[in-house]
What we know:
- Chain A is of the alpha+beta class.
- Chain A has 7 helices and 4 strands; from the N terminus they run H-H-H-H-E-H-H-E-E-E-H.
- Chain B folds into 3 domains: 18-229, Rossmann fold; 233-318, Ubiquitin-like (UB roll); 323-420, NADH-ubiquinone oxidoreductase 51kDa subunit, iron-sulphur binding domain (de novo design (two linked rop proteins), Up-down Bundle).
- Chain B is 43% helix and 11% strand.
- Chain B is built from 18 helices and 8 strands.
- The interface between A and B is large, with 46 and 57 residues.
Amino acid sequence: xxxxxxxxxxxxxxxxxxxxxxxxxxxxxxxxxxxxxxxxxxxxxxxxxxxxxxxxxxxxxxxxxxxxxxxxxxxxxxxxxxxxxxxxxxxxxxxxxxxxxxxxxxxxxxxxxxxxxxxxxxxxxxxxxxxxxxxxxxxxxxxxxxxxxxxxxxxxxxxxxxxxxxxxxxxxxxxxxxxxxxxxxx
Amino acid sequence: xxxxxxxxxxxxxxxxxxxxxxxxxxxxxxxxxxxxxxxxxxxxxxxxxxxxxxxxxxxxxxxxxxxxxxxxxxxxxxxxxxxxxxxxxxxxxxxxxxxxxxxxxxxxxxxxxxxxxxxxxxxxxxxxxxxxxxxxxxxxxxxxxxxxxxxxxxxxxxxxxxxxxxxxxxxxxxxxxxxxxxxxxxxxxxxxxxxxxxxxxxxxxxxxxxxxxxxxxxxxxxxxxxxxxxxxxxxxxxxxxxxxxxxxxxxxxxxxxxxxxxxxxxxxxxxxxxxxxxxxxxxxxxxxxxxxxxxxxxxxxxxxxxxxxxxxxxxxxxxxxxxxxxxxxxxxxxxxxxxxxxxxxxxxxxxxxxxxxxxxxxxxxxxxxxxxxxxxxxxxxxxxxxxxxxxxxxxxxxxxxxxxxxxxxxxxxxxxxxxxx
Lengths: 186, 421
């Protein structure tokens, strides 16, 4: 498995391509092949392969979906259908850090509405939108299985709990400026 | 006297590493199992009385006995680490605090059923658990608790860590298998697709929950008799309006009231109003049920349909909680997580959600409560899998215990709970 926040490598067709045309690098394809070898049937690696592609390209562009389809050996329609089923694949560019605020029952009981309201105001975006600097995309999430720390959110791969408007500000400040130009910023 | 063991070491530094685990008796259960015949291991687990801790509560030993013993048949063990039932966080606690315990349970279970390949289907959002598990798996291979000829027993086992991609339905066992095969997580028809008969890649498959396999490691280490004397314990995830939300290890059959007390009592001493005893898929219970023991049978036989122990996720609500809002949020959750395969679930959750929207926006109609009950009735016994049928229990219970709150919303367009809070 790969980690979500690594630096992207340059796609196979070179640095100059606009993001939506960028292809998967050879090392990403090798990683997908490594995942496929773990399973008795290679399609089992599809979910992992889609994350490899998404981590490198920033989102699942038509170009990288084609590459995944070619490496895993499945029709593009099947690859797209599977990807579209799950919440954690993105078909449009997202910010450097994805903020996921849990809005399920326990977090509702402990005030997630206030946290979400504060995040909207602080970031100047609504749920589903990305800040103009490309730093954060705000989303809601279903139960993140950390209800002892409700209300909870994830920023990238990090979980933060017992949130209040004040702690949210401190947490956001801890995330550095984007290390790469986002697709929208180009 | 019962001692805490499932949670005993989860907060100790070093427990997630092999050295720490071994220094506290780790892998003793596996060593003992490997000296027994596989059928004896299953028998020991059966004798312990352990029931699956994922939510369905099926007897673990019996589940393993369904797997055909024929060594010529390829079998798999799959771990359901896709914890997602709202209010449940005990598996994440075990994964982050004691990952080798799970690996030990996997090795014991695989040995018992004769599987040489096991898969962990881990929830994608569990990034910290993934990093700890990856390290623990590598350590277990190096120390020959996994891999070829484990501890010179002649038993081989490979464990593969896979992740989901964000889908509550993937926690349903057959949907999990679909997802693990690289497809949309849509449930399979039972019969014929019982995992023990036609599971992963159509081979016999034992599907076990994280907590279940951690119990297995302890049962083999200390014996079924010792285990039974401990209660036996279960992990209860307690959240909501209690003073100290958290995972608590309590004997099966602890009352709801005692569980709340274990979690420090009601926050700020405010009165208890209601709870979900087994995650949001269970019915909501009112104060009259506070002395109900949290065990499988006592909760299931209450006069509240859909009351169950489930994953033992106790979500506690105080008097300042608007029940209409809570049930509306629950309905939305199932609406968003419905896989869309069957009509009652896909459409029923949308219809219910629309009615809740207008009630909460002050445009509810006089016959809306009958409409809610009617839609819920249409979803019972008609859905393809348990997801759709997880909606009516809390809805019906709230209509029964808190009907006046719905009526007030419809009549006045406002909430009477907030007004007094």
